Amino acid sequence: MLEYSPESHAGQAGISVHISTDSSLSLPPSLPPSLPPSLPPSLPPSLPACLPACLPACLPGSLPLCLPPSLPACLPGSLPLCLPPSLPPSLPPSLPPSLPPSLPIFINNEWQDSVSGKTFPVYNPASGEQICEVQEAEKADVDKAVQAARLAFTLGSVWRRMDASERGRLLAKLADLVERDSAYLATIESMDSGKPFLPTLFVDLQGTIKTLRYYAGYADKIHGTSIPMDGDYLTFTRHEPIGVCGQIIPWNFPLMMTAWKLGPALACGNTVVLKPAQQTPLTCLYIGSLVKEAGFPPGVINILPGFGPTAGAAIASHMGIDKVAFTGSTEVGKLIQEAAGKSNLKRVTLELGGKNPNIIFADADLDLAVEQAHQGVFFNAGQCCTAGSRIFVEEPIYEEFVRRSVERAKRRTVGSPFDPTTEQGPQISQEQQSRVLEFIRSGISEGARLECGGKALGLKGFFIEPTVFSNVKDDMRIAKEEIFGPVQQIMKFKTIDEVIERANNTEYGLVAAVFTSDITKAMTISTAMQAGTVWINCFNALSTQCPFGGYKMSGNGREL
Prior knowledge:
Elements: E1 2-4, E2 16-19, E3 105-107, E4 110-112, E5 119-123, E6 130-135, H1 139-153, H2 158-161, H3 164-180, H4 182-193, H5 197-218, E7 226-227, E8 235-236, E9 244-248, H6 254-267, E10 271-275, H7 282-294, E11 301-303, H8 308-317, E12 323-327, H9 330-342, E13 347-351, E14 357-360, H10 366-378, E15 390-394, H11 398-411, H12 430-445, E16 449-452, E17 456-457, E18 463-464, E19 467-470, H13 477-480, E20 487-493, H14 496-504, E21 508-509, E22 511-515, H15 519-528, E23 533-536, E24 551-552, E25 555-556
Parallel strand pairs: 2-23, 9-10, 9-12, 10-11, 12-13, 14-15, 14-22, 15-20, 19-20, 22-23
Antiparallel strand pairs: 1-2, 3-4, 5-6, 7-8, 13-25, 16-19, 17-18, 21-24
Helix pairs in contact: 1-8, 3-5, 3-7, 4-5, 5-6, 8-9, 10-11
Pfam families: Aldedh
Family: Belongs to the aldehyde dehydrogenase family.
Protein name: Aldehyde dehydrogenase 1 family, member A2
């Protein structure tokens, strides 16, 4: 894979162009016939007293399952994967049901109940059943966490006096602990979010570990500059930590987004108040136990599960927070930007929604384009801000592309996250399932042709059939609004100028993709797209080394 990025990590606007020269996965030629029967014993000997019952250190060694000879069906085709030297332990059907009344919040390296004592339920989206209760953080808890974070950031504190290389060592230690517990974390993540276990282990966990290790190495390589100046003066710059960073992460990639937020902030010497999504707080809370085990000083990392209008709003408007970073919807991003401006003009990074174009020319490798377009929409049940849901196909191959896309969608396996053949799990909640089904109904009523899918699936859980629409017009809701579900829209174009204009005719500008064998077309499209990242003959080729973010209403600044 060749990668070209004409922007720096300074967060300035620019695009990242990724060119794939090999469509194959970086998987070993064959996989062992079965997984070991039980988890390795290298999990921590103990967790804080209030956690073990809900997050036990050992899982039942049940269901030694056999893997298929290859995994292209359940892993996105172009994600740069880094597989562990050995395969994971057996896939447990679920975590043990013996749970405490509620899980606590994490402030100042201590587990504690929320000030109000309120709790909220966390559900398994594959079954609709409640997993446990979690203490609900509100404004008073944010105040406590900010106080702890500000104390940890005080001049002369252990954290502020710590060498950059030592900060890097702590991040590396945290990465090692995540790697040690990766199968366990993947299990919790799959149960909490409905994500299939194998992609969670091979994509999410590996991405989390790589991000933490990347920023562990970056911590002592942040340099200033000297500047020539008239007269007898010496001028130099140095990079300073911002201070207390409020971080609000989404429910679609809880672990990876935690690493994306923590890694850069901690490497640069900041302290953190982090709010996981209320739908998926469990793995983030487990990270709290690993933070303490790694040896981070008290107050450096604080984890507050709660709701956006209470805990999230308190973070965005808090006078003691110096920067807020948010990943989520454009609508909420606007509220956060407004709150930051009305409070202390804190810095804001927003990674928001997308309605991303994927352009398929007639000279493209059709097999590759169909599979990549399929994975680009349906990966993670369509719950990706990068989903390539607006697919523009050149007229000569349009009918064939639609036919093959429908065949591929009908082969997609939907089911239990712990079945190794599952490609697609449930939507995150009943509310989200209903929202996606409403989009499907709107597509039908506005005249798009429903080729397959379109209905809820199963008697329990929040599943939706993989859905494909053809004959989609640019002014339909399904072509304009972010669906965040397993719904593929395929449109037709005739000329390159036409498709450039139509692809850019959106309020979003997160990512785009083009499939062609003509380098001139590829570079023309990549230059013309109003998007933060453009992929050429690949999709979702994300990397820790490359900045990520969007244009227009897809956000401000860059992650990583």
